UniProtKB/TrEMBL annotation:
The lineage of its organism: Bacteria, Pseudomonadati, Pseudomonadota, Alphaproteobacteria, Rhodobacterales. It comes from Halocynthiibacter styelae. Signal peptide: none annotated. Gene3D superfamilies: Conserved hypothetical protein from pyrococcus furiosus pfu- 392566-001, ParB domain. Residues 76-143 form the ParB-like N-terminal domain. Pfam families: ParB_N. Transmembrane segments: none annotated. This is ParB N-terminal domain-containing protein. Residues 43-63 have a biased composition (Basic and acidic residues).
Length: 357
C-alpha cells in the first residue's frame, strides 16, 4: 500500500502528450461578452450625452440671461409706445420707396436681421431696434394676410436695462449705417433730455452721452442742430431736409445776431421744403451784413486763487494775499521793499512810496 495517502493510491500521472486543456468561449459566453461590451459602450455614450446635455443647458441659460437668444414673437404682442423713435416724419418713411424695397426683400428671402425688444414695467414687449423691419412686416401682414408675416424674429433684452442705454441702442445701428440725418440725431438728444427717467436735462450735454462713439466733429454738427431745433421749434417744418452745412451756418448766425423771432415767422409760412431752405439761406446771408449782437459783460469775479511756485496767491478787491512756507519776517527789509516795488510796477501802478510802519 502506498504511503501517499490513507486511501492507498497515489496521484494519477497526467498524460504529457495531452498538454494543457484548451478553454474556448462558447456561443453563450460570446453572446454574454458582446452584451457586456455593448452595455459598457452604451453606458459611456449615455454619460457623455448627459454631460453634453448639461453643458448645452448651461449655455442655453447663459444665452437666455444675456439676451442672445432669438425668439419668434407675434407682431400684435409688440408695441412701439414706450421709446420715442429716432426718425422724423415716420409716416413718410413708412410710405417711401425704401420701405417697398425692404418689403420685397422680406417677401422673397424672409427676415434676415432680428429686431430688439424689451419688457416694460407692465410686462409688454416694447420695440427698441428695428422699426423699419417691424413696419415692413406689419404692412406685409395687412396686405397679404399670410401667416408667415404675422410674427417677427426678435432678441429680447433681459433684466432692467438703463433708459439711456436703450436710446443709444436705438440710434446705434442707424448711426453706424449713416442712415440718420443730423436733425434726427439732434431730435433724439432733445427727446432723451426731456425723458423724466434720464438724469440729464440739457440736450447739448446729452449729445456726447448718446453719440460718444462718433468723431468729435460729427458731435459738433449734432450740437448745432440741437441748438437750431430748440431755437426754431415747430416752425422748422422739414428739419430732415436741412443740409448739414446750412444747418450749422444758421445755428452760428442765430448765436451771433438777433433775429430768431423774425426767422420763425418767415418759416411758419414756408409752403414747402425748398422755400424753407431758401429762407434759411437768406437769413445766413443777411446775418453776415449785420453787426454781431452785443454780449452782456461778464460779471466781475469776487476773488480768484492761483499758485506761483510754492506760494498761493488770493486776489480780491483791495487785497492780494500771499501764503508761503517762507518766513518773510526774516527777509531783509530792503529786499522785501524791492520785491514790492517790482510787483507794483508790473501792475502799472508807477513808483509807490513805501511808508514805514
Amino acid at each position: 500500500m502506498s504511503s501517499g495517502n490513507k486511501f492507498g493510491f497515489g496521484p494519477l500521472d497526467a498524460d504529457p502528450a495531452a498538454g494543457k486543456r484548451k478553454r474556448s468561449v462558447g456561443p453563450m459566453g460570446a453572446a454574454v461578452r458582446e452584451a457586456a461590451e455593448s452595455l459598457q459602450e452604451a453606458t459611456e455614450a449615455k454619460v457623455e450625452q448627459r454631460r453634453q446635455n448639461a453643458q448645452d443647458a448651461k449655455d442655453f441659460r447663459a444665452a437666455q440671461d444675456e439676451g442672445r437668444l432669438l425668439v419668434d414673437i407675434p407682431l400684435e404682442e409688440i408695441e412701439t409706445s414706450d421709446l420715442p423713435r429716432d426718425r422724423l416724419e415716420l409716416e413718410a418713411v413708412a410710405a417711401s420707396d425704401e420701405m417697398e424695397e425692404l418689403k420685397s426683400s422680406i417677401q422673397q428671402r424672409g427676415q434676415k436681421e432680428p429686431v430688439e425688444v424689451y419688457l416694460d414695467d407692465a410686462g409688454r414687449y416694447q420695440l427698441k431696434k428695428g422699426w423699419r423691419r417691424f413696419t415692413a412686416l406689419s404692412q406685409l401682414r395687412a396686405e397679404t394676410g399670410e401667416d408667415r408675416f404675422a410674427s417677427i424674429i426678435a432678441r429680447v433684452e433681459k433684466g432692467q436695462g438703463a433708459r439711456l442705454d436703450r436710446y443709444v441702442d436705438m440710434v446705434e445701428e442707424n448711426v453706424v449705417r449713416e442712415d440718420l440725418t443730423f436733425a434726427e440725431m439732434a431730435q433724439v438728444a432733445i427727446t432723451a433730455a426731456a425723458d423724466p427717467a434720464i438724469d440729464e436735462i440739457d440736450p447739448d450735454a446729452m449729445v456726447p452721452r448718446l453719440y460718444g462713439s462718433l468723431h468729435k466733429m460729427k458731435r459738433s454738427y449734432i450740437r448745432s442742430f440741437v441748438f437750431l431745433l430748440c431755437a426754431l421749434g415747430d416752425d422748422l417744418k422739414w428739419p430732415k431736409d436741412v443740409a448739414r452745412n446750412l444747418g450749422v451756418d444758421v445755428a452760428r448766425a442765430l448765436k451771433n445776431v438777433e433775429g430768431a423771432a423774425a426767422l420763425r415767422t418767415d418759416l411758419a409760412v414756408a409752403p414747402d421744403r425748398g422755400a424753407q431752405n431758401d429762407i434759411l439761406a437768406k437769413f445766413v446771408e443777411a446775418s453776415k451784413k449785420k453787426p454781431a449782437a452785443d454780449k452782456p459783460a461778464a460779471a466781475p469775479r469776487e476773488k480768484f486763487e492761483f499758485h506761483v511756485g510754492n506760494m498761493k496767491v488770493t486776489a480780491r478787491k483791495g487785497e492780494c494775499r500771499i501764503v508761503s512756507p517762507d518766513d518773510f519776517a526774516s527777509v531783509p527789509r530792503a529786499q522785501l521793499e524791492k520785491a514790492i516795488r517790482a510787483f507794483e510796477e508790473a501792475l502799472g501802478k508807477g513808483n509807490p512810496r513805501v511808508t514805514s510802519l
